[in-house]
Amino acid sequence: MYNPSMKVAIGSTNPAKIEAVEDAFKKVWPKKKFKFIPVAVPSGVSRQPRSDEECIKGAKNRARKALEKTKADLGVGLEGGVHKIGRKWFDSGWIVVIDKKGMEGVGCSIKMETPPRMINTMAKKGFELGEVDDFFFKIKNSKQKQGHFGLMTNNAIKRSHAYSHAVISALTRFIHPELF
Questions:
Q1: Shortest CA distance to 36 belongs to which of 49, 46, 24?
Q2: Class (C level, CATH) for 5-113+157-179
Q3: HEC string of 99-121?
Q4: Domain extents for the chain?
Q5: Of 67, 84, 136, 157, most Cβ neighbours within 10 A?
Q6: pLDDT of the residue at 144
Q7: pTM of the prediction?
Q8: How many helices (DSSP H) and strands (DSSP E) are in the chain?
Q9: How far apart are CA 12 and CA 96, in angstroms?
Q10: Residues 47, 55: Cα–Cα separation, whole Å
């Protein structure tokens, strides 16, 4: 279905997200060669998405814009956010993969509960989760490294690993298109 040397546009320059995409594609298609093209593109959603719908919209926007900007075979958009379920807030990442013909796969990472203290700090200071993580864990730029998942699990689940699984789940649309 896809040529032996595919170009994959990644709608991000974040090292953790790039690692996730590269890892996922290599796991799904170990014999294919890929050229990964990270590109900064806007999400078109708020700085800190607060719903699954907003994250999916942001990931879709990033995938489309990356595809348009690079003329690649596939565009991948990744968007993290927090989501309220009942009284609790959860962090997760959403992935959208789009090909030139418009075929689209969507996947999601794990959902991890976000402590109320962090959510309250986000609300009071207008921070996004990465900034709150940096504040509470006294580090810099964690979202481009281990991310919230890594910080909360002592690196048992790094952001790149959780997002890699989410990319793989989005790729199921391309692995088994006949089922869709």
A1: 24
A2: alpha beta
A3: ECCCCEEEEECCCEEECHHHHHH
A4: 5-113+157-179
A5: 67
A6: 86
A7: 0.94
A8: 6, 6
A9: 13
A10: 10
